[in-house]
Amino acid sequence: MKNKVIEVQNVHISISKQKLDDYICITDIAKAKSDSVRAADVVRNWLRNRGTLEYLSVWEQIYNPNFKVFESEHFKKQAGLLTFTPSVSEWVNETNAIGLYVKRGKYGGTYAHKDIALEFASAISPVFKLYLIKEFQRLKEEENNSEQKEWDAKRFLSKNNYLIQTDAVKRYLLPQMNYRENLQWLAYAEEADILNVALFGFTAKAWREANPELAKKNNVRDFATINELTVLSNLESHNAQMLREGKEKGERFKILQEIAEYQLNVLNAAEEIKMIESDGALSEV
User: Fold this and answer.
1) Starting from the edge strand earliest in sequence, which strands make up the sheet with 11-17, in order?
2) What does residue 103 show for φ and ψ, rounded to 5 degrees?
3) Based on C-alpha coordinates, what's the Rg of the chain?
4) Given this model, what pLDDT does residue 245 score?
5) Domain segments of the chain: what residues?
6) Which residues form a coiled coil (predicted)?
7) Which of 67, 137, 139, 202 could form a disulfide with 60 if both were Cys (CB 3.0 to 4.6 A apart)?
């Protein structure tokens, strides 16, 4: 995945998306400290600090089950010694750390998980850290808006394909028997089928027999429209109340059928009006 780049106080900072989360190039952040000091040396000096090693160790223990705690103690014992000049690669290789990694080539440098990168930025400059947080949040908002638009588009296409498939099932694969007039099934029906017939006009078994291939992985409710699923939820509530009142199957079925027909007509009519208004608005543009 291509790196993203943000600009913080005239410093370009690369951000890499990894499996765990976003990783920020702390080599780029180090450039904000001083032009006279090599960025790699700034990172190395930061890693020498015992407070840094403590923070990295705790972070790894929280997020990394394979972190080698014993090996990390070896680093912490040497912190502060003049001869102690660890590299990021040494830390990663010896402790099996995942919070830092080194990348070669284009966009190369030391990358740190965002939690660690912000801690590094604090050591560089608290002011720079604040601007970094602001720019990073702006980037994430842009990504979220982009993902939302993509999700909305996929949802729209999915819904239309779903309706096309539903229409095909209803047009060509409906059971032939009229279950609303021939009520022989009702005496032995389960509650789910009372709802199915009230709404769809046939039992689940009848649908499976008419659609053997589809029935291998689906049921009739998988092909219901959004409006039908809304009405179905309402029917379940009405049926539960009538069961508590002790109403017989025949009486409940008649009431449920009337409710289904009325509510479905209302919802479908409202959807048609919305589509007409939407088309009218588009034609005016």
Assistant:
1) 4-8, 11-17, 22-25, 109-113, 100-103
2) -115, 135
3) 32
4) 87
5) 4-145, 173-284
6) none
7) 67
Residue 98 vs residues 64, 113, 131, 258: alpha-carbon distances, Å: 7, 8, 26, 62
Question: Do 194 and 253 contact (CB within 8 A), yes or no?
Answer: yes
The residue to which tokens 């995942």 are assigned: 98
Taking only the tens place, the pLDDT of each residue in 124-138 is: 888 999 999 999 998
Tokens of 184: 């022989």
Burial class (CB in 10 A: 0-12, 13-18, 19+), 125: middle
**Chain position carrying tokens 């279950």:** 179
Q: Quick one: residue 23, left, alpha or beta (phi over 0 = left, psi -120 to 50 = alpha)?
A: beta
Strand partners, 12: 7
DSSP for residue 8: E
pTM above 0.70, yes or no: no
Question: What pLDDT score was predicted for residue 186?
Answer: 76
Residue in the structure block whose two tokens are 């379940």: 236
Residue 246 token pair: 């002790």
pLDDT tens digit sequence for 42-75? 998 999 899 999 999 999 999 999 999 999 998 9
What's the chain's length in residues? 285
Which residue(s) pair with 102 in the sheet? Answer: 110
Q: Average pLDDT in the 143-149 region?
A: 73
